[in-house]
Amino acid sequence: MIKLQQLTKRFSRSGMDVTAVDGVDLDIQEGEIFGIIGYSGAGKSTLIRMLNGLEKPTAGKVIVNGLEMSTISGAELRKARQKVSMIFQHFNLLWSRTVEENISLPLEIAGMDKKDRAGRVRELIGLVGLEGREKAYPSELSGGQKQRVGIARALANEPRVLLCDEATSALDPETTDSILDLLTDINRRLGLTIVLITHEMHVIRKICHRVAVMEGGRVVEQGDVLDVFKSPVQPITRRFVSQVTEPGDAKQAVGQLADEYPEGTLVRLGFVGDRAEHPVLAKLIRAHDIDVNILQGNIAQTHGGAFGSLTLQLLGNDAAVREAIAFLQAEGVKTEVIGRD
Ligand SMILES: Nc1ncnc2c1ncn2[C@@H]1O[C@H](COP(=O)(O)OP(=O)(O)O)[C@@H](O)[C@H]1O
Ligand SMILES: [Mg+2]
């Protein structure tokens, strides 16, 4: 559905060249929610703006619905852009227009007559859950409601792709979750392909099927969300994953744990997918001559299944502890020794 081939964008500003996007290859499938994560300056916005022709590539190709966006222009580009719409961090609403007038705008631009517009706007208001707020102005809405208007407006002309540029970054955690739920719902109900960019792994964890990690204009890692959570390869990916798998300040926590529990062996277990942790732990305790203390746990749900980590203190003689660790590894549980006496 969306194919990026060696996509590159260079800006030159006061004689300095910046390569914002550097040779990116990506394939995004129809109907999936594809996340792109990276820190500020990684090139995410530049990349997503090339997907709908807002920005022209310096080199490489953007193919959307079989059309090469980078080579079309004028009426053809405007038509293609209607099928690839976008929502933004700061909503980009017209402040002098009401909710329904904001949502109606793209329909007016597309030349739909007034009667049809009214029906379509009503439908969209229902879809995003803004009934009763039709006559309100953006200044009278909460952040979450403003983004709902943004989403309704983006969906007005029945796009096939929705691009989201940090669409929840200005919202509090609860509102973020409600907007992410709405995006998931729209993805399921309309079969809409969603490409979202974010710097928050929570957003990826909650709704994305696949993820690409960007650093310095390049995609440094990509895959199914659960696989990336299971075995992140690049240091930057590990850092993003630890945003949601490790409680608080993880590094300090390991040190503190080692101080607090000087005896025995401290191990951290990683759990993924449907491998439930409890049967493994029960077997561990039953079959081995050791005592087990659970010191920390953090299990979270992704779109593809559960993942998380559990930190244990294993108490027993060396051989028994070694056997216990070998048992865990044989059970397919990622087991890392983080401290021993
Ligand atoms: N219009 C522009 N002119 C010059 N440099 C730009 C422009 N847009 C983005 N950049 C530069 O490109 C790099 C990537 O920016 P951006 O795509 O906004 O990253 P992100 O969205 O990941 O924060 C940054 O170094 C930024 O300063
Ligand atoms: Mg950006």
Describe the structure.
The chain has 341 residues and is α/β, with parallel strands linked by helices. It has twelve helices and 14 strands. The chain has a six-stranded mixed sheet with strand order 6-7-8-3-9-10, sandwiched between helices. The chain has a four-stranded antiparallel sheet with strand order 2-1-4-5, covered by helices on one side. Strand 7, helix 6 and strand 8 form a beta-alpha-beta unit. It is elongated, with a radius of gyration of 24 Å. The N and C termini lie far apart (55 Å). The model has no long low-confidence stretch (mean pLDDT 89). The structure holds adenosine-5'-diphosphate and magnesium ion (MG). Adenosine-5'-diphosphate (ADP) binds next to strand 1, strand 2 and helix 1. The site of magnesium ion (MG) has 2 residues, from helix 1.
Write a short abstract of this structure.
The protein has 341 residues and is of the alpha/beta class.
Quick tags:
six-stranded mixed sheet; alpha/beta; 341 residues; 14 strands; binds adenosine-5'-diphosphate; four-stranded antiparallel sheet; elongated; binds magnesium ion
Helical run tally:
12
Order of helices and strands: EEEHEEHEHHHEHEHEEHHHEHEEHE
Structural class: alpha/beta
What form results from the Cα inertia axes?
elongated
First-residue to last-residue Cα separation: 55 Å
Strand content: 25-35%
Largest sheet: 6 strands, mixed
| Ligand roster | adenosine-5'-diphosphate, magnesium ion
In the predicted model, the low-confidence regions spanning at least 5 consecutive residues are none
- Strand order within the widest beta sheet: 6-7-8-3-9-10
Percent helix range: 25-40%
Radius of gyration: 24 Å
User: What's the rounded overall pLDDT mean?
Assistant: 89
For the secondary structure, the number of strands is 14
